């Protein structure tokens, strides 16, 4: 079975968006789009779902909050109560206001780092990983659509013809 | 499209006023300790006068901020904020009445207005207050109050006038002037939002002071104003108006409500924690008072106003879904009013103050007048500022 990848190269984000709409209307599945910046309105066109990173961030934040509160309960109440400025140091609740800033900071720290690491892992772009970008110029002024032939019922020729109906700059086919 | 004030809205505001009046009368007749009644009425007049006035004041601020930041998305809801501004004169009259009552010794809300505490020969002489008399004296107080009210109102009046004129003549002239006026207002408001809160609210607890108090009061008025805007937009949309306001605009307004709720919680807690931690007698009295007679109201206000918006409005979907954000908005609106109540009552009613029929009655009366004034002002102009240079950009807001 042929496993060819078609790259349609554009020089304008709006043209690419219109072309994507055209191809999707023909029933073509666009695997991915590479562009120097996010293209407004492209996600629903190529069928990308909304990111769930916000939910992950909330969970990481809550983990941070629990860790901070649990940690301070152990350090300050259970293990080694200290008399700081005459504050009541035998119950957790009476000390709670002084724990709030650290709890907040640690919640933010965990949410932010968790989000960043999740993002890098999900995209498999951790530091030191080999770049997967087929066209380095998409980091500058090119916009590329990636279509896999075996994703679609249409043949390679049909797809190419439909791409040619759009204002495409160049079509490149690679065997993968 | 122009909004027509419905009979239902008129009747609702009249019903609110009548229920409020009845509740007030019932509360006064069943109240204990008659010698507190007068003071209680004046204290409530200050609470409601301040709360509703500052909502319209924050609307001027938010409008000015839109010009200063050249914000585009808000153009479709600009007329709502202009409507909220219309309550300003009424609120100002109530405030002036309260201050006049203080000056003429009809009530005793402001302890420092009593000349005896400044007089070293009097048995009531209070050295701490006397030392503050360079700032807290009747003449300077009135000068500041009149200056705040007059200058704030001038900007409100000008923004409204320029916006209505823009509807007719178009062009960029009024917009450019409004940016300069906006900068001037924001600069003036940066100082006066704090100093007015010191003068009108913080000076009740004359011995006590907090450098954070002005921002705390300011964030409270700002979030209350945004809540009112969210509710008004949803009300008008439910009547079929404001078709131009799409889900992204609604999302942005809810987001503002969420964000400023967090700002308010942050400032509330910062003020509390620093004073609690340092535990200096002259500072901590403020909280001792609030943690004895007013503990439930005081802590309850914080938890409701922080937890409800924070947990319910955090998600993108709930910010766009009226089933979620309307109940939150209604509840935190009431609790921001309670917040002003616990700013005022402990220092004026001491351990006799509580949230009863008199308080609720006065609140409903003011609410009725406020709703009527604001809706009437909204009905007086087209709902869309069509000639605003950013109007088209605002229509296409999408995220």
Describe this structure in words.
The complex is a heterodimer of chains A (176) and B (399). With 176 residues, chain A is α+β, with helices and mostly antiparallel strands. Chain A has helices spanning 13-25, 42-45, 53-79, 92-122, 156-164, and strands at residues 4-10, 32-34, 143-148, 170-175. In chain A, strands 2-3-1-4 form a 4-stranded antiparallel sheet. The radius of gyration of chain A is 26 Å and the shape is rod-shaped. Chain B has one domain (7-385). Chain B contains 15 helices and no strands. In chain B, helix 1 runs antiparallel to helix 14 (357-379) and helix 11 (295-312) runs antiparallel to helix 13 (322-348). The chains are: A alpha+beta (176), B mainly alpha (399).
Brief sketch in words of this structure:
Chain A is α+β, with helices and mostly antiparallel strands and 176 residues long.
Number of domains of chain A: 2
The SSE string of chain A, one letter per element, is EHEHHHEHE
Which strand-content bin applies to the residues of chain B? under 5%
Category by helix and strand content of chain A: alpha+beta
Number of helices of chain B: 15
- The sequence of SSEs of chain B as H and E is HHHHHHHHHHHHHHH
Question: Residue ranges of chain B: pLDDT <50 for 5 or more in a row?
Answer: none
* Biggest interchain interface, per-side counts: A-B, 11 and 11 residues
Output the structural class of chain B: mainly alpha
Question: Can you list the strand order of the major beta sheet of chain A?
Answer: 2-3-1-4
Number of separate strands of chain A: 4
Morphology call of chain A: rod-shaped
Largest sheet of chain B: none
Binned strand content of chain A: 5-15%
For this structure, what is the CATH class of the largest domain in chain A? Answer: Alpha Beta
Number of helices of chain A: 5
**Rg of Cα set of chain B:** 21 Å
């Amino acid at each position: 079975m042929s496993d060819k990848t078609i790259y349609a190269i554009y020089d304008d984000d709006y043209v690419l968006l219109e072309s994507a709409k055209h191809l999707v209307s023909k029933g073509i599945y666009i695997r991915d789009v590479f562009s120097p910046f996010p293209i407004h309105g492209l996600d629903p066109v190529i069928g990308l779902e909304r990111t769930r990173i916000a939910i992950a961030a909330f969970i990481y934040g809550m983990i941070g909050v629990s860790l901070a509160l649990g940690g301070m309960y152990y350090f300050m109440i259970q293990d080694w109560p200290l008399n700081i400025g005459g504050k009541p140091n035998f119950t957790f609740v009476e000390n709670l206001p002084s724990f709030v800033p650290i709890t907040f900071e640690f919640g933010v720290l965990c949410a932010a780092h968790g989000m960043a690491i999740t993002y890098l892992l999900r995209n498999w772009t951790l530091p030191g990983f080999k770049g997967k970008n087929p066209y380095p110029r998409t980091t500058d002024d090119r916009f590329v659509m990636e279509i896999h032939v075996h994703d679609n019922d249409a043949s390679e020729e049909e797809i190419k013809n439909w791409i040619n109906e759009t204002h495409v700059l160049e079509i490149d086919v690679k065997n993968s | 499209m122009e909004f027509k004030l419905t009979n239902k809205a008129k009747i609702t505001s009249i019903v609110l006023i009548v229920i409020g009046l009845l509740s007030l009368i019932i509360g006064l007749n069943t109240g204990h300790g008659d010698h507190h009644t007068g003071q209680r009425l004046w204290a409530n007049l200050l609470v409601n006068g301040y709360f509703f006035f500052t909502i319209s004041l924050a609307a001027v601020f938010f409008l000015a901020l839109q010009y200063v930041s050249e914000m585009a998305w808000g153009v479709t809801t600009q007329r709502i904020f202009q409507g909220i501004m219309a309550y300003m004169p009424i609120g100002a009259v109530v405030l002036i009445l309260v201050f006049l009552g203080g000056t003429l010794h009809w009530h005793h809300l402001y302890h420092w207005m009593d000349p005896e505490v400044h007089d070293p020969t009097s048995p009531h002489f209070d050295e701490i207050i006397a030392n503050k008399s360079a700032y807290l004296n009747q003449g300077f107080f009135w000068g500041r109050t009149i200056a705040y009210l007059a200058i704030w109102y001038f900007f409100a009046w000008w923004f409204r006038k320029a916006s209505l004129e823009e509807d007719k003549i178009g062009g960029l002239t009024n917009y450019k002037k409004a940016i300069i006026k906006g900068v001037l207002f924001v600069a003036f408001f940066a100082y006066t939002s704090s100093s007015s809160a010191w003068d009108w609210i913080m000076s009740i607890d004359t011995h006590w002071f907090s450098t954070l108090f002005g921002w705390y009061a300011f964030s409270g008025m700002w979030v209350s104003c945004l809540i009112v805007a969210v509710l008004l937009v949803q009300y008008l949309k439910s009547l079929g108006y404001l078709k131009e306001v799409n889900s992204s605009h609604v999302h942005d307004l809810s987001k503002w409500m969420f964000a400023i709720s967090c700002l308010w919680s942050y400032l509330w807690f910062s003020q509390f924690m620093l004073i609690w931690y340092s535990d200096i007698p002259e500072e901590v009295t403020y909280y001792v008072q609030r943690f004895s007679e007013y503990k439930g109201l005081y802590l309850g206000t914080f938890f409701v106003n922080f937890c409800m918006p924070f947990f319910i409005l955090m998600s993108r979907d709930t910010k766009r879904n009226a089933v979620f954000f309307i109940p939150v908005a209604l509840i935190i609106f009431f609790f921001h009013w309670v917040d002003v109540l616990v700013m005022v009552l402990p220092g004026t009613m001491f351990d006799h103050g509580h949230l009863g029929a008199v308080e609720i009655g006065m609140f409903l009366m003011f609410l009725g007048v406020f709703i009527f004034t604001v809706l009437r002002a909204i009905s007086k102009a087209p709902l869309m500022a069509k000639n605003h240079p950013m109007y088209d950009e605002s229509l296409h807001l999408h995220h």
